[in-house]
Amino acid sequence: MKASSYWYLANFWIKTALFKKKDPIIGSIIITDRCNLRCKHCSVNNITEIMYPYTQIKKDMQTLYDLGVRILFLYGGEPFLWKDGDLTVRDLVVVAKKMGFMIVTVVTNGTFPIILPEADLILVSLDGDKERHNAIRGNTYDTIMANVKNANAKNICLYMAINKINKDAVREVCRITNETENVKAVSFNFHTPYPDTKELLLSVEEKRAVCEQISQMKDEGFPIFNLKSAFPYLINNSFPTPCHQSLIIENGKISVCGRCIDEPGLCEACGYFFAAEYTLLFKGNLKITLEALKTYSKYI
Q1: Which of 72, 27, 28, 29 is nearest to 52 (CA)?
Q2: How far apart (Å, rounded) are the C-alpha atoms in residues 97 and 220?
Q3: What would the mean pLDDT of 9-28 be, rounded to a whole number?
Q4: Is the pTM here over 0.85, yes or no?
Q5: What share of the chain is helix, strand, coil (3-state, %, to 5)?
Q6: Is residue 123 within 8 Å of 159, Cβ to Cβ?
Q7: Which helix (H) or strand (E) holds 190?
Q8: May I ask the CATH architecture of the domain 23-299?
Q9: What is the mean pLDDT of residues 8-29?
Q10: pLDDT value of position 258
C-alpha cells in the first residue's frame, strides 16, 4: 500500500477507536451466487444463480465508496464465473481501483486460471491436504494447486474454513503456504454453522486446540495472516457483534458485517476471524492494534 493509504487508515482508526464512530471502511460485493462447486460447508451458493449486471455492480461500488469504504472484496459464488458481455471480474477490479479503493481483493475457489495481476490480494480457498480438501470441495485439489503455481502475480493468500472434516490439516496448509512461491500467507476461519451445516461446527475444545496450533506455527515463522490476540475471543465467541465497520452489498441491499446477520443465532456462533479481529481493532484493543500493524504491513 501507498504511504497515503496508511495515513488514511490510521486516521480512520483514531476516529473509530477513540471517538466511537461506526463508519464503514471494509465492504464486500456479491457479484453472483453462481458457483461451479457445491462444497459441503457452503449454504449460500446457486440460490438464484444470477449474474448481476456490470451497471449494478458499479453502482454498488459507488454506494460503498460514498459511505467511506476503501477496502473492497469481490465475492461469489465464484467470481471468475461472472461475465457481462465481454467484461469479466478483471474489469471489475480495474474499475474499483480507478474509483479509488485502496485495497481490492477477490475471493475465489481457485478452479479457474488465476490471471488477475490488478488485484491487491486474491483469496484462494484450500481446505486441507488433498484428501480432506477433496472430501469437502470435490476433486479440485490438483487443479487449484496448478492454478496457484501458474498464477501471473504473487498476490495470493490461501483461505481455509476449519471444520470437523479438516481440523487436523491446518499444519499441512501452512506448509503448502510456506513452500508455494506465489502465495503470500494463509488466512483461517472457523466454520459458521448455517442450519444445514451444523454438524461441521467445532466444539470449544476443538477451537482451542486449533488456535494453539496456529499460534505455535505463527511463532515458528509460518506466514499466517490472522491475529493471535483475537484467538481467545474466537474460541469462546466473546467478541462483540456485528462489526459496524464492515458492510456487504448484493444487488443494492446492504447488510452490516455479513449476510449471516439475518440468520437467527449465527452471530453467537460466528467463526469469521475477520469479524473478531476488526471489531476488536476498531474498538481500540491495543494488543490487537499492534499485532494488526505488524501483520497487515507484512502481507498487504
Answers
A1: 29
A2: 35
A3: 94
A4: yes
A5: 45, 15, 35
A6: yes
A7: strand 183-190
A8: Alpha-Beta Barrel (3.20)
A9: 94
A10: 83
